[in-house]
Amino acid sequence: MFGDDIKAKMSVSSIIYGPVRPLLYEPTSGKAAILVFTACLLFFIGQSLRIVCFHPLARFPGPPLAIVSNLFYSGTVISGHSHTTIKKLRDNPRKGTNIFVKNPHFYPTDGTIRAKHIVNTSDPVEHAQIRKMMSHAFSQKALFEQEDIVIHYADMLMTAILDESREGLIDLEMFYNWTTFHVLGELASGEPFGSLEARKTDNWITIILMMMIKWNAYDFAIHKLPFLPRIQSWLVPKDIAEGAEIHIMQSKRKILERMNRPNDRLDFVSYIFKKREEIGITDWEMTAHANALVIARSETTATVVSGLTYWLCRTPRAYEKLKRDVRCTFTSSTEITSRSAMPLTYLTACIDEAFRIYPPISIAMPRKAPAGGETVAGYFVPEGTTVAVHMWSTTHNPKNFKDPYEYRPERWMEPNNTDNLDASKPFLLGPRACMGQNMAWMELRILIAKLVFLFDFKLDDDDFDWDRDSRTFVLWEKPPLMTRVTPRAV
């Protein structure tokens, strides 16, 4: 069923680690070597001066290294601090009127581990085809059918928190990951991961959170630079590369097992299976689609709930108001559904503010300027130029939000508020807008309303700084959220 495992493993290893080729040296005189080096250096200096002084992009501000080379960009991607680095550079994003497609240098694809899926497909026509194929999984009818699954695992989370809180402090960030990965595991591969029952993080989830996020960052950074993809094996830390290999092979086995296992209930991948023969979807593409759904939907939702928990604990005024609203509306947690929680406007405002102050995708998602170029904010941007809007910088820009580092849900409710609320777009815009945003809102309303109804939370460390201790590698690497939990007598 899985083909030649040894051959497949060798194929995956060669892509993850990169082809290893011996460097060939030929004897040469010292004088010739100096001449070659000098010529290369002069060429680089000349090109740098041309770009800095005469290129159409010369008027855009930025550090010199970022202007003449992609080294600055690649370095920030793998540093873990790209959100704060970019924030310091520029607080004034602008937009053009034309469509900027995704930059394939940031989204490298191939026929195996980087097989195309809805996130990394750059071609608008191909993306529209994939989006149409998956649209049924996110219809209102599908959401209604999925809500029971979300409520089931939300209730399992409440039981797990209740049980474990009796033993002392708990890491809520870990508990949230268990829950959101359970939901997407059920919907994308037909089986949960078992972490909530075992009270232990499944190995597959651990690899995603500790290795795959960083491997993706290295992969993006390396493919942004010339020649480096050929020596990728020497650049990516061994534990990260090995973790990525294990994860990819496990993912492929999971989706092939699901494909050959009858399932009475329609899940996300059921709709892909139906189109498999019609449009020629390969096993690797099936794996890529399922992986994209699980990672993009589960990790990001857990990030929002974790950030919201931290900021509520750090903002007692907002926390007390949300508790009053939720606890005066419901008499039992069993009454809480997405529909019953929707009228709670302060709950919605708290979630909106969590999206703003801790956007789940904090980095800039690179696009390409269209053919013929485009004028953006009065500047001409030549075709093929990489452009992006950096979400963290945008939502922490005082020109868009007054007191941007303050968690203040009321800004989303005040009729005379002067903040530029449209500057916060956690689900993106246009044809690339997240298909799963309605499901995300359903899951967030249910989880947060139940958490606030059943428990009181207090951070263990008064000096704990969530922003300071978070690092971003495309997705967030979040610190433990050690919390003292007190169950309510309900």
Textual characterization of the structure:
The chain has 490 residues and is mostly helical. Helix content is 55%, strand content 6%. It is built from 20 helices and ten strands. It has helices spanning 5-17, 30-54, 64-68, 71-79, 82-89, 124-135, 140-165, 172-189, 195-198, 203-223, 232-235, 238-259, 268-279, 283-314, 316-329, 338-341, 345-357, 391-395, 437-454, 466-469; strands at residues 101-102, 170-171, 367-368, 374-376, 379-381, 386-387, 455-459, 471-473, 475-477, 482-487. Strands 1-3-6 form a three-stranded antiparallel beta sheet, with no helix packed on it. Strands 2-10-7 form a three-stranded antiparallel beta sheet. Strand 4 (374-376) and strand 5 form a beta hairpin. The radius of gyration is 24 Å and the shape is globular. GO terms for molecular function: heme binding; iron ion binding; monooxygenase activity; oxidoreductase activity, acting on paired donors, with incorporation or reduction of molecular oxygen.
